[in-house]
From TrEMBL:
Top-rank lineage group of the source organism: Bacteria
Full protein name: Ankyrin repeat protein
This protein's record includes keyword Repeat: yes
Keywords tagged on the record: ANK repeat, Repeat
InterPro entries: Ankyrin_rpt, Ankyrin_rpt-contain_sf
Length: 220
């Protein structure tokens, strides 16, 4: 039998105890955790990227994976835990677009291409939310591959208040939609990618160094 951990223990220590236990369900029962404590433990597991714990906790009858406006999903995204994100978005009721597409904006700010690709593929996610904030921020941070990923989405279109170079890139992507839709990783056919963009009218610095960027217009 597992002994109940003293309540003054932090949730990090509780999480460590759970992960180190052989029978995790017995360990949880021994702790006699309240619903709010289980929720906080769930949030902590998602933040840390402990997929096994996340999966276990969501199997409990009183655990709502959508609690606090899908906080667990947003925290997993913010910390780059793709496997946890993939699991959470597969659960009924979990909304990847919660908080005006907060998860997508976090993934974009972090430069996390894999999470961005996953999120934009999900129903309801709008990469053009908040005046195209995601693609503007990706351009500002010189995340060219995220800019290209977002630009392939039908919701993202050129607006007059965008910097000219960002407009050029979006137009070039739309013209060559088939190529950029199948484009997956930064390592694949880099030179071809740049040539297609430039032929589409986008101006790029193809060899960034010493503070130079692929995307020149950072005031986005």
């Amino acid at each position: 039998m597992y002994e109940r951990v003293e309540r003054e223990k932090t949730f990090d220590e509780l999480l460590a105890g759970l992960r180190n236990s052989q029978d995790k369900m017995d360990w949880i029962e021994a702790q006699n955790l309240k619903a709010n404590e289980l929720k906080l433990l769930f949030f902590k597991a998602a933040t840390k990227g402990y997929l096994d714990v996340v999966q276990l906790l969501v199997s409990l009858p009183d655990l709502d994976p959508t609690a606090l406006n899908n906080y667990a999903l947003q925290s997993a995204v913010a910390n780059g835990h793709l496997d946890v994100v993939q699991f959470l978005v597969s659960l009924p009721g979990v909304d990847p677009a919660a908080g005006d597409n907060y998860a997508l904006r976090w993934a974009t700010f972090n430069g996390d291409l894999a999470v961005v690709q996953l999120l934009v593929s999900l129903p309801g996610v709008n990469p053009a939310a908040r005046d195209n904030e995601a693609i503007r921020e990706a351009a500002k941070r010189d995340y060219l591959d995220i800019v290209l990923c977002l630009a392939t989405h039908p919701a993202v279109t050129v607006t007059e208040d965008m910097p000219e170079q960002l407009q050029q890139i979006i137009r070039a992507v739309k013209i060559n939609q088939n190529y950029f839709t199948v484009f997956q990783t930064p390592e694949v056919l880099q030179e071809t990618k740049y040539e297609i963009l430039e032929k589409g009218g986008a101006e790029l610095n193809r060899k960034p160094s010493n503070g130079l960027y692929f995307i020149h217009s950072l005031n986005v």
